[in-house]
Amino acid sequence: MIHVKYRIAFFMIYCAAIVGDIKYSLTNLPTKDSSLVYLVPWTGWIDDKALTNTFNDLGIGANMGFYTAVAYKTEFKDKAQSIRNDIISLQVATILTFQKFEEKSNEALKKLHVAFEHISDDREGEAHIILLDEVGSLANDLAKEARDIELQASTGRDKVSSLLKEIYSSRGELKNKKNEIEKQEQRLQAQKARTETDLRNAQAAAAESQRQADQARYNADHEKRKKEEKCEGWKFLICTLARAINWNLVEEYEIKERFHRREAEHHLARAREQQQKAARAFSQLQQLANKLNEAREKIKSNENIAQGLQDIICNYNGLTVTLQTFSTAWEDVSNNCADLKKRVTDKAAVAAPSFQKQAITLYAQWLSLGISSKSVLNEIKPIKVIEETITPKDAQNKIKKD
């Protein structure tokens, strides 16, 4: 059942092709409004819309790649700009080439129209050969032009691939650097935590020594006042003995005070030292954090640039494939011209339906390629101008905006 459906579909297409052929003749050639798909099978796979879309995406990608390189302050700024310049150059070359495609197509159509108008006239046979030869040479030249921009696109793609490999090779080195910084950060965090613990302990010890010294001073003063109060009203001798006895106790408290004061000063000095260590550790941690952020940003930027380059390579590949369809089409036109030229002086061959169909197809080929070329020229968009002195902040804003 499936095979039957396929046969019916094929038969309908075949009939449509015959009907399409019947309405054209050497005196009633196709026009720009004609449906050329049955006359020129490859008109269905020359996608001028895809070509212009790819070119436009390529231009956007080139600008985004440059903005990314600037925004993240990478060393790839110059190379990103070089890639962008290559794409601009390719676009200019393509526009010039397709202008030539359109111009030469119009020229060829005029020559073919003249040739086919009196193709059955014996006296015009040699003139037809010359015209077909000229048209064939035009097709050869245009095929070469198409291959040239195809080659230019391939060269540009290879350059992008080279930069992508460079980024990939540096990615491992960047990650190793980031991991090493993270390890240093962990060690410093542990050192800072220990230093802060020592600082708290030293401050607590200093406070305790200060408290004990204050207590000893209080005790000494208290004993002085107590004994002096008891001496009031005593006899001089008894008071003198009492003072001598009690002064030892006061002196002992004062000795304790001096000891605890020295201990407090020692602990405070140690606390200041630990505080300085903690400050240094914090400063080092801050520096490492900055380095770590830079490393992470660089890795992120490299990933973004790598992704952008992959997109550019995909666009280059699509562009190359589409350009190949044009170069192949021009080669097909050239071969068709060469074949017709061999038979144009044979009156019997010219009268045959196969010759007339081939001649109409040749005309339709030129017409189709001219239409496609004009479509490309109408749809292709110039790459946006950018400032080479743009700041990282402006570049980031451009990325968000575009």
From TrEMBL:
Keywords (A to Z) from UniProt: Coiled coil
Region span, Disordered: 178-224
Coiled-coil segments: 261-312
Residue spans of biased composition, Low complexity class: 202-216
Stated name of the protein: Dynein heavy chain coiled coil stalk domain-containing protein
Organism: Amphimedon queenslandica (Sponge)
